[in-house]
Write a structure and sequence with these properties.
Layout (H helix, E strand, L loop, with lengths): L17 E7 L6 E5 L8 E2 L1 E3 L2 E11 L2 E9 L2 E3 L6 E4 L2 E8 L26 H6 L6 E2 L8 H17 L15 E2 L4 H11 L4 E5 L4 E6 L1 H12 L7 H6 L2 H11 L23 H11 L3 E6 L9 E7 H11 L21 E2 L20 H11 L3 E5 L5 E6 L22 H10 L13 E4 L4 H8 L6 E5 L6 E6 H9 L3
Parallel strand pairs: 11-12, 19-20
Antiparallel strand pairs: 1-5, 1-10, 2-3, 2-6, 4-5, 6-7, 6-9, 8-9, 12-13, 14-15, 16-21, 17-18, 20-21
């Protein structure tokens, strides 16, 4: 028999048992855990974590393989909705996959759990108490995964994406907004803010076709241009300067012209309704864009195009999660800790010289420096950290539209407003449609499974998950949507 807390990792019959920590972080008076590893007949009493009375833990001996488990809280069977779960013989149960024997569980946590609380509300109190426990069933050591399991998982996901089309992305109901290229930039700025959308396709009524996309990057570049002393675009001209004039002016500025000095007409990156999800994802990745319009024409010549939807990688990831919701155990890679997968950008560890530095800013940095970094680093958001590099919040490209409220953009200087003030403005200026609600920074631990990272990236408006150190929230790395898709699809 295995006794919780024992150093024995093998029972008398010679079967390998892996000491595994289970956590229930939602309170109760008496909490038990039971599952296939106890044959559902011997519930294990869980103990409250010192300093966190609402968090219960137990260490059980578990054989390598696939297991199901539930918690028995004050006389009621419950499961942890934040951990992988399926519908089984005992209702909805959590799942656990152990692929090999792990090292013994390290000593239990210390009691100092409140020293590193942030001033800005990034997560709830459950994260503060249970962060170092990494959720439900935590495997403290690094698991290895075979190349065959990786190949199987990626092949199944790629096969699904190749089978289903962009029609899977269309909501049951909703609206898609397009802007005329002859609209003033200022008016377009306010429309995006008021409608709570980050991007909008551009319609040319003369050509009778969609010709481009207006994105937060355009507004960032416009505001930076207004902030330059040599700018030819004044605040007054912004009131009447059209989107078309801005786009053409930008092409002239960056030398995107033909031999006659005319702006080169760029083809709109878009997808068709019958394109596979894989083709849509590859198109987004290869063109370095955040979204592509889904456009359908009932005629072969492409006339009378219909705008059906705006496709994004997060929407495609939602389709993956929905399709494999009850069969996630068929994808071993999803149960793999992200620190063991060649995924994302990580802060170099002591002695390492091959790591790339992460783009991060302090809250007192100017908004101008934040916008410059977003453009130069070609990223969608920047972690905002304290002096110890502990995560406070993030500032995203799409947050720029918050400056549209009450024409704030016309009343500030980018180098005089701090990032902290801009974030506060974002929180105070949430659009009526709640777009900014999806922009809260998303965190994970390096020991969290890929499934958890994918679920968080599938949230609308989220394009990066910040990997933080347990307890201190010190930033350790970043995993983006493009990182995940390049890995799953085998793209460079």
């Amino acid at each position: 028999m295995f006794f919780p807390g024992s150093n024995n990792s093998q029972d008398t019959s010679g079967v390998v048992l892996v000491p595994t920590r289970f956590v229930w972080p939602y309170g109760g008076r008496r909490v038990f855990v039971s599952g296939t590893f106890t044959r559902w007949s011997e519930p294990v009493l869980m103990s409250p974590v010192e300093g966190c009375p609402n968090v219960f833990q137990a260490i059980c001996g578990v054989t390598p393989g696939f297991h199901q488990y539930k918690f028995y809280v004050d006389g009621e069977w419950r499961h942890d909705e934040r951990q992988p779960h399926v519908t089984g013989n005992y209702g909805i149960v959590n799942t656990l996959l152990l692929t090999r024997e792990l090292d013994p569980v390290p000593p239990s946590l210390g009691t100092d759990t409140h020293e590193n609380r942030m001033n800005m509300d990034v997560e709830n109190d459950v994260f503060q108490c249970a962060v170092a426990l990494s959720g439900g069933a935590t495997q403290e050591a690094t698991m290895a995964i075979s190349e065959a399991d990786v190949e199987i998982s990626c092949h199944r996901i790629s096969e699904f994406l190749s089978t289903y089309t962009a029609y899977e992305l269309l909501p049951d109901s909703g609206k898609v907004i397009a802007l005329d290229v002859n609209l003033p930039v200022k008016q377009a700025f306010h429309i995006l803010y008021e409608q709570g959308i980050p991007v909008a396709p551009l319609w040319d009524s003369y050509k009778k076709q969609f010709v481009g996309v207006l994105s937060p990057l355009d507004f960032i570049l416009i505001l930076r241009e207004l902030g330059n002393h040599g700018s030819n675009l004044t605040q007054e001209e912004l009131e009447t300067h059209t989107i078309s004039a801005w786009k053409e002016g930008r092409q002239l500025l960056y030398g995107q012209v033909d031999e006659h000095g005319r702006p080169i007409e760029k083809r709109l990156v878009h997808a068709g309704a019958y394109d596979s999800l894989k083709d849509v994802a590859v198109k987004i990745l290869q063109n370095g864009v955040a979204t592509v319009p889904i456009i359908h024409s009932p005629f072969r010549d492409g006339s009378f195009p219909q705008l059906l939807h705006i496709a994004s990688l997060s929407g495609i990831l939602t389709c993956i999660c929905r399709h494999f919701r009850h069969t996630s155990n068929s994808l071993p890679i999803l149960q793999q800790p992200i620190c063991t997968i060649p995924l994302g950008t990580w802060v170099p560890r002591l002695g390492e010289t091959n790591g790339r530095p992460l783009a991060m800013l302090r809250p007192n940095a100017s908004l101008g420096s934040a916008l410059a970094l977003l453009v130069q680093a070609q990223v969608s958001s920047i972690p905002i950290v304290d002096d110890n590099d502990s995560l406070l919040d993030t500032y995203s490209r799409s947050d720029i539209t918050a400056l549209a409220k009450d024409r704030v953009y016309a009343q500030i200087r980018l180098d005089e407003m701090s990032v902290h003030q801009a974030i506060q403005l974002r929180q105070d200026s949430s659009s009526p449609n709640g777009f900014f609600d999806g922009q809260r920074c998303q965190m994970c631990l390096r020991t969290d499974h890929l499934l958890k990272v994918i679920e968080r990236l599938a949230n609308p408006g989220v394009r990066r998950v910040i990997i933080v150190e347990a307890g201190s929230k010190r930033v350790e790395g970043i995993v983006s949507l493009s990182d995940v898709f390049r890995f799953l699809l085998g793209l460079p």
